[in-house]
Amino acid sequence: MVQKMKLAYIGGGSTAWAWKLMSDLACDETISGEVLLYDIDMEAAKRNEKIGNLSGKGRFVYKAVPTLPEALKGADFVIISILPGGLDCMESDVHYPEKYGIYQSVGDTTGPGGIVRAIRTIPMYVEFAQAIEKYAPNAWVINYTNPMSMCTDTLYRVFPKIKAFGCCHEVFGTQRLLASMLKEVKGLENVQRNEIKVNVKGINHFTWIDSAFYKDIDLLPLYEQFAVKHYEGIDNNDFDEDDSCRMYSFKHRIKFDLFLRYHKIAAAGDRHLAEFCPGQWYLDNPDVVKQWGFGLTTVPARREEYQERYENAMAVINGTREFHPEESGEEGVHQMKALMGMGDLVTNVNLPNQGQVSDLPLGRIVETNAHFTSGKITPVIAGELGGVPHAMTIRVSDNFDQVVTSCLKDDLSGCLSAFQNDQLVTRISHGQAEEMFMAMLKNTEAYLGSYKKIW
Amino acid sequence: MVQKMKLAYIGGGSTAWAWKLMSDLACDETISGEVLLYDIDMEAAKRNEKIGNLSGKGRFVYKAVPTLPEALKGADFVIISILPGGLDCMESDVHYPEKYGIYQSVGDTTGPGGIVRAIRTIPMYVEFAQAIEKYAPNAWVINYTNPMSMCTDTLYRVFPKIKAFGCCHEVFGTQRLLASMLKEVKGLENVQRNEIKVNVKGINHFTWIDSAFYKDIDLLPLYEQFAVKHYEGIDNNDFDEDDSCRMYSFKHRIKFDLFLRYHKIAAAGDRHLAEFCPGQWYLDNPDVVKQWGFGLTTVPARREEYQERYENAMAVINGTREFHPEESGEEGVHQMKALMGMGDLVTNVNLPNQGQVSDLPLGRIVETNAHFTSGKITPVIAGELGGVPHAMTIRVSDNFDQVVTSCLKDDLSGCLSAFQNDQLVTRISHGQAEEMFMAMLKNTEAYLGSYKKIW
Amino acid sequence: MVQKMKLAYIGGGSTAWAWKLMSDLACDETISGEVLLYDIDMEAAKRNEKIGNLSGKGRFVYKAVPTLPEALKGADFVIISILPGGLDCMESDVHYPEKYGIYQSVGDTTGPGGIVRAIRTIPMYVEFAQAIEKYAPNAWVINYTNPMSMCTDTLYRVFPKIKAFGCCHEVFGTQRLLASMLKEVKGLENVQRNEIKVNVKGINHFTWIDSAFYKDIDLLPLYEQFAVKHYEGIDNNDFDEDDSCRMYSFKHRIKFDLFLRYHKIAAAGDRHLAEFCPGQWYLDNPDVVKQWGFGLTTVPARREEYQERYENAMAVINGTREFHPEESGEEGVHQMKALMGMGDLVTNVNLPNQGQVSDLPLGRIVETNAHFTSGKITPVIAGELGGVPHAMTIRVSDNFDQVVTSCLKDDLSGCLSAFQNDQLVTRISHGQAEEMFMAMLKNTEAYLGSYKKIW
Amino acid sequence: MVQKMKLAYIGGGSTAWAWKLMSDLACDETISGEVLLYDIDMEAAKRNEKIGNLSGKGRFVYKAVPTLPEALKGADFVIISILPGGLDCMESDVHYPEKYGIYQSVGDTTGPGGIVRAIRTIPMYVEFAQAIEKYAPNAWVINYTNPMSMCTDTLYRVFPKIKAFGCCHEVFGTQRLLASMLKEVKGLENVQRNEIKVNVKGINHFTWIDSAFYKDIDLLPLYEQFAVKHYEGIDNNDFDEDDSCRMYSFKHRIKFDLFLRYHKIAAAGDRHLAEFCPGQWYLDNPDVVKQWGFGLTTVPARREEYQERYENAMAVINGTREFHPEESGEEGVHQMKALMGMGDLVTNVNLPNQGQVSDLPLGRIVETNAHFTSGKITPVIAGELGGVPHAMTIRVSDNFDQVVTSCLKDDLSGCLSAFQNDQLVTRISHGQAEEMFMAMLKNTEAYLGSYKKIW
Ligand SMILES: [Mg+2]
Ligand SMILES: [Mg+2]
Ligand SMILES: [Mg+2]
Ligand SMILES: [Mg+2]
């Protein structure tokens, strides 16, 4: 029996997450249905409609629709993956702070770039939440957009009964690192990343593992030796976010450094981890970055990458290239199947804190494992962060909370307070931070129409 | 590859749980090892040694040992299932209160019988915990003994780092009831009980289900109709605890009655549920019990049953009967395998509350689902009980807490306070309750040697 | 300088609390202002207008007004003391359950009477809260009406920013008992009740004292001896609620009995304490009541008392009797002065739990000390109840919570669930309790117009 | 009647706090007793013995004793005010970090100086706590030593039942500022600082006021205007800590700046507040410090001040100067009297968090108001910090927690982790911070004998 389902895809013109999803839907023989693609760039959605309908064996029908209600009505699942403001905004987010000596390796989650990105994204998420409440209140909602915590938080604040969760693959990379460690240390080949059982907790892109096992092997003692041995970094990197180029690469040095300090495994790519620490530690300047073995992902490089994907899409549409769906390694399809009763799953996911992280405030969006089963996602009790990891995490979580609260009240000066207290921004004075903030707002003002202008 | 393991069985002369375990170990081809049987009745342990070594194909070697340290040293798992004080004590626990018009359907968990049973069991568990701390501090400890909550609590209070959990199959019976409902209502055959996905919470033998799904079917609306339709009770009972006789039977009337009042599924056999409610509701007198469609399990009947099992054991040992191991439906072996990395499992289990039940105090032994995986058990966030179920549950949990605290301080008058506040005992006056308490202590004083005598 | 203030009095025709207030306002030379009397019985309000204007030296002007908005506009303080449904309803509340063998000594707080009284009072409090939000959102609101917890809870649920608190003098009686103990034991004369410093916690009419000092004398060890010595009861009762007749009298036997069981001082009159315990303990039948040394306050006796007060009022109005204001011993005026910056005060008061009682749920109305100062009331951290007192208290608090929630949703069957679980009601079966509940609703249906009729 | 009392003074050779206490004891006619002075500098204690016995009218007898047990036995109150390691250590704490561009205005609470000071103080406090447990377990213990939070925390960790609290006058200065505002804005003369009623919360030297009233005047709206008007700073400073010289002066600019950002009144001297903020805000370099209108308190200046006090002491002893006791404005004597039943007091104090600050972890030492009464101190519910003040505070509190935990485990590398995450230290790299830490330990190693040497 093939299970029928209806998906709404907000940001349906995406060339990254949408393609992964189309691949995964094409590869799974047990499900079928309809995917409605909504995007402010209708042309992009139409391209994906064509590609989607070329993929698979017709079990899924793809359709680009011009409005959000058309996409949402009757949906069992809603997926949100948008690029809020496009690469021009991202250029300001990531590179403008460099004028003040502030370097960002990603710039979409925290730091000055993450906060300004949140400010323009939150009004969009207010609209999504309101539309979901109106047109698909019982749908499961999967968010992939960054800044993950603040986007997901906005959904819950606007529509508290929303059944939303946020997904990210960064922990998978750490599981892969542990699998590769087992190969090196124990000669174990072909350990799958989801055979590495971890207890994970924190906030998206800054999560910590305090228990890791492969079968009956306790991985933490092995990891300690591994971190010491490879403290200078590992070159041949198993994990590439977005199956892509060197600009995403890193040598796990930050991960090892954090482990040796705090005795917990930081579970995200080094590019993300660096941004959650005081700026002077790993992002002090490009030389320091280099020394820690990772790269700053530039927006010009992202533009090139985007152009490649666009050309690839056109080639598929024009029939000059074939689309060979392969499993992406992402878990969205497994999660949806679990929720429909097609096999339980325990995996890491972003949800409001109901106590799964005991030393972060209730209600904050946190990332831990959760049990996906028929009709329900239940987070597991992951315990406390403790110590300096707690101190670093709650500071960022407090800032996120302040940003979301302030945006929802249209109080951008409240956002400024959080911005000035950001771990990358405190290297400059209040006055300089304010000047930078105003300039960054001005650079991206095309997307700030819903706010009182303070810049 | 066959995984090796070493088990210590405290109460290894048991004819109930021990046989189920031997069967399950015999049936599973992927594991092997050693089972050390310790029992104060060494003869009984020796009988099980013989039966165990006759069962299976020799993958497991059984050995009765005369001391606890011999059993525990090197154990990966410790199983505790004892009958504290034997059937003579149980006779007093269950039937003595009848003199005061207090009827108990089980008498081993709560009520006057449950409390007095706890009083004599707690000193035994103090010894077990101390021995485990000394001889097997890293072992996983599975408790099957009642009163479950108080036994497990004692283990944690004495040795806070113990890796103990308590197991009970009462929720399984409710899952089976839901499966049989699916057959009746939807014509679905062969739904397995573990395909019924439930969110369960409460304390052992008084747990509540507020979410139940089979694949994509929400079972709560169906159950409401089912409870109304079968309000007078269901005769042909799918569930028989201990695959046994009518004395354990019930018609689910109490379960239906509680559902119609509180809109949550009470998830235990009616005999247990009745004892957690004010005595006048379902246990007012034998006529009321009959009217609610369940039976009072008498100790004479238990004696007969025990005799049958004993004869059965002798027959197996003498070779006049064969032991055909069959899977028991219990989950102990699955749980142990999960902990060794042989397949994850999410199931209900008794653990100290770390927030999995949001409206019971932290530290109390609660029953919810937990994720069993390599090297770790993590409870899931089951949420709040709320309303009258909360009021009923916390009253009992408070009483349990008071009993354990008082016993550990050798303060039996503190136990008396809890006893007088028990939901079955409040039908009599303080003075009568005290008189009854003292008599029940006297009846069982052979096992109360570690306490200052107040009776 | 005399401080000006404006008071609104809801229930301004009252002959009990209103007269105390008029006396206290008349006695205090430092304040002046206006008192607006609102009552559904406008004649009664007019009588109090006359008496009020005869009292004092004209510093306060009294005025009966026909509508709530007229009373509230511009008020600095709002006082609510009503008799919801009058003595006819109370007759049913208190005496109808006697048909089922359920005796109540007060019947206005908990027990079947307290719950049915709550059901008819909550809609009135919804109106009060809405009117206060509209007409006097910044006023301090003092509630004297029972059931205290449920009335105050309703105010906060309807208007969460209300600055309301509930006052009751029952703890004062316990302080007076401790003062009389000091006289007896230490020969100390003239110890004032507010010199007895207590740490108090619980819910209204069922509060517990775990620390009591007079200057540097620790009173708990003395109280233990005192309780033992006077276990049979104290005849010459220092404390008479409402300076009134024997029908309110008691011998503190229950107070002593509870202390010897739980080692905390129960801090309310025995008539109230009895109702929070399982019915069979102190209220089993009139003989048991007598044996415990207290009386059942009958409604016929209340009628007589009311008639006396009415005649007294008429005599004052007609000039045949003079009104000699004397300080009542209540604290309302002191509290209002403290809030206006005229002297700090620490006293017991009913407020939503923000953690002042650590083992009751947040948000529940609890009674502890609080610091009254300029512009602010801040509860103190009173700690945990613990043990059996906790078990008894939370059961009642849960029931209250269920009643308020159900009434606000117009779900009287939810109230029935709580009613059936009440500590006085569990002596009868579900079915009998339902029958009794329906009859009690019917008896008082004149005040249940806002509910769907289920009786 | 004059109340008798016995005090033990640890650090009894002090020329600052001890003199204030002697003055206050001399001024109060209602108390008498004995003060035992213990100090590692016995000569200093002897000087204070002489001065003490010259002060007052002989109601108090002072005696220097050579051992801690002699001081403690029979004490009703224990006062601890020590200078851990003396001014030589303080020279390293405060000035060594300047080599790394890190400036500290006080250097005794947080920042690199505060942490290293804690490291050498904690072992001393372990001894004090053990001795108090042994010799004076029921005494009230008042701590004045900095770092306040970590000293007080150590007392509670070593002897959990200790009745200790920590006192500091920084909030008083803010009350005085509010009083002077009332003079300027409202023309109110002679408002006393304790007539300014504040709700205060946070950690010592970084507390926040969210409610402030004088009689019925709400001070927060006035303060907003006041902060705007005086944003450049107030010259004529009403508040001088230690009645002393310009090196302690400040213009309240930081206080005003923080208020305008966070809408709560930061309630400590600017010199303290600055150290809790990211270093680049107010302490970036000496020019920035000047611009914010406060001074860096240098250790050479402290030496001069100490010398003056020493000469003063000798003059009193030699009879060339008279000792005229005047009330110090401190509250120690009032607090002790309140605890003996000589008048209630509500004031700010440092205690383990039992929920008085709702968004800091339980158990952490926090500063809020508390009710001092006969035999008991009860903190009031001060509520949440919220927003950026919370983010800044919890970061520091987490670091303090980590330092105390690590010192008690003799794990100075755990302290290093906290040190590197300190808000003043994050301006330098991990490596530089480690180098600085080791040097600072080396500079003060004479007091680090109880630790494994890692420097
Ligand atoms: Mg991500
Ligand atoms: Mg069971
Ligand atoms: Mg009352
Ligand atoms: Mg200070």
From TrEMBL, chains A, B, C, D:
One of its GO terms (molecular function) is oxidoreductase activity, acting on the CH-OH group of donors, NAD or NADP as acceptor. Its cofactor is NAD(+); Mn(2+). The keyword Hydrolase applies. Keywords: Carbohydrate metabolism, Cobalt, Glycosidase, Hydrolase, Iron, Manganese, Metal-binding, NAD, Nickel. Pfam families: Glyco_hydro_4, Glyco_hydro_4C. Binds 1 NAD(+) per subunit. Belongs to the glycosyl hydrolase 4 family. Homotetramer. This is Alpha-glucosidase/alpha-galactosidase. It comes from Youxingia wuxianensis.
